[in-house]
Structure to design on (507 residues):
């Protein structure tokens, strides 16, 4: 009942936002703010629907993105030709991994504040999924770079470098978790690391842009309605991937919780035996 | 206990232990000079590479040998069970972090000045001739670099000190955090170490100092706030 109420409130909020008179003519900043509002409402709503439904919705949206890529968007881009189509999978993965890394930082902070192990499992599952999204971003990015620039790795592209550094950073986080056995200590240390690394992400981003080599700007060039379709599809894809990753995140977190419960029961059993 | 008094007595204690053992600093210096020595040999055959690779070896020597000091930073406490005593003492854990960080910063500074001296000798850096005005900017940038390096390093060292393979994990965790700093010093390298006429388009030493100062402030504040959570029992 409580969940249904949450869904209702989120839907009404989003609908109200779009029905505001003159929403279309609002400035870019307001649109970003309302986008963030919708994002938060989405996060709360998604947690309230059953996991099975959530997974099905996620996959369905990803398949719909694939359909749009096959039928709606132009097949060739002016500069890059057909190779640009990989962008519709590259961009959503990149946005998802960035959002999930930052969310993991927030959850880690909350874990330190509440000392509840459930948040630690949630943050760890979030980072595992984000590392997978990050790997997909790197692989599709390198494939695209091979097609566009003739080389899979280019040091002068700041985005490629940022994602690669994030990958190394969060792989280190996962390695570190494996080295600690005590769950309470692991939760505390991982949360500290989660916060420290979340601070590091924007620093890497700015350091590379301000002090790195000159960057190659890479904007998609298309005119008129086609550009609109392209923008629409890529943001649709970002939403679809994000919803799917949220479902996978819930799945992983619940399996981690089950693992922790098993360990607890095993400990209790052994103690009883002694 | 007063915060400042605790801070200074913790530093004094740390320096006294280090002065009697003479392990950490000596090990670090030897390792750093050895790294620079090998680096210098690799470019000795081709003098035109010295300007490019010399400064890079300088930073590499500091980063790699710094981890030797960081991984040993909490060993004295661990050996004698002093960590538990310090945590239960009526001292703010943040103050303990700041004292530890200052002590390790001092060791790393001693090591990096040894590296600078070795650099002057091995790479034929003319401090009495052409490059006499460079020593001050290089020293300041190096000191700030070391501060940014030890601030998260001490926190990570406290987390990894008792773990299996803790030293390796410390490096894996610390190096990704150091990437923004490395990018900054590498972009300032040409104006610090080579002919400024050739390198006008690169980052100036002043910009590098300001950026490193800002990064140091961010890391010191973040780690000061996070450290109590690490030592909490």
């Amino acid at each position: 009942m409580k969940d249904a109420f949450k869904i209702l409130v989120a839907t009404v909020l989003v609908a109200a936002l779009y029905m505001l008179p003159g929403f279309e003519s609002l400035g870019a900043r307001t649109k970003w703010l309302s986008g963030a509002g919708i994002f938060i409402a989405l996060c709360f709503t998604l947690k309230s629907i059953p996991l099975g439904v959530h997974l099905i919705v996620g996959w369905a949206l990803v398949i719909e993105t694939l359909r749009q890529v096959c039928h709606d968007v132009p097949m060739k881009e002016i500069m890059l030709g057909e190779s640009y189509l990989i962008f519709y999978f590259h961009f959503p993965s990149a946005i998802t991994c960035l959002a999930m890394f930052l969310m993991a930082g927030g959850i880690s902070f909350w874990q330190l504040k509440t000392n509840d192990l459930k948040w630690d499992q949630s943050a760890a599952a979030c980072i595992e999924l984000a590392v997978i999204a990050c790997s997909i971003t790197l692989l599709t990015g390198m494939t695209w770079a091979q097609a566009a620039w003739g080389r899979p790795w280019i040091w002068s592209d700041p985005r490629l470098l940022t994602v690669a550094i994030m990958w190394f950073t969060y792989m280190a986080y996962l390695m570190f978790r494996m080295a600690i056995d005590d769950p309470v200590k692991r939760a505390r240390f991982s949360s500290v690391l989660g916060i420290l690394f979340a601070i590091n992400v924007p620093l890497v981003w700015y350091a590379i842009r301000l002090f790195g080599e000159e960057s190659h700007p890479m904007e998609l060039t298309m005119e008129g309605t086609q550009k609109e379709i392209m923008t629409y599809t890529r943001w649709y894809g970002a939403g679809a991937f994000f919803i799917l990753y949220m479902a996978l995140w819930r799945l992983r977190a619940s399996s981690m919780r089950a693992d922790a419960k098993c360990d607890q029961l095993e400990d209790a059993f052994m103690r009883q035996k002694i | 206990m007063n915060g400042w008094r605790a801070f200074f007595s913790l530093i004094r204690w740390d320096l006294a232990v280090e002065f009697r053992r003479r392990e950490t600093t000596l090990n670090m210096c030897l390792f750093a000079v050895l790294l620079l020595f090998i680096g210098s040999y690799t470019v000795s055959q081709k003098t035109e590479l010295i300007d490019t690779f010399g400064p890079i070896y300088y930073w590499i020597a500091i980063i790699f040998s710094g981890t030797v000091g960081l991984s040993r930073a909490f060993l004295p406490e661990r050996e004698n069970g002093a960590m538990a005593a310090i945590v239960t003492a009526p001292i703010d854990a943040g103050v303990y972090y700041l004292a530890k960080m200052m002590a390790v910063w001092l060791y790393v500074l001693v090591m990096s000045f040894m590296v600078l001296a070795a650099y002057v000798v091995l790479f034929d850096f003319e401090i009495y001739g052409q490059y006499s005005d460079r020593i001050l900017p290089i020293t300041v940038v190096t000191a700030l670099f070391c501060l940014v390096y030890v601030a998260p390093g001490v926190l990570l060292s406290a987390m990894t000190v008792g773990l299996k393979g803790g030293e390796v994990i410390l490096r894996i965790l610390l190096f990704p955090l150091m990437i923004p700093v490395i990018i900054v010093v590498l972009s300032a390298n040409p104006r610090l170490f080579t002919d400024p006429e050739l390198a006008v388009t690169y980052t100036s030493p002043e910009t590098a100092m300001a950026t490193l100062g800002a990064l140091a402030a961010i890391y010191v504040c973040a780690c000061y706030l996070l450290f109590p959570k690490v030592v909490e029992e």
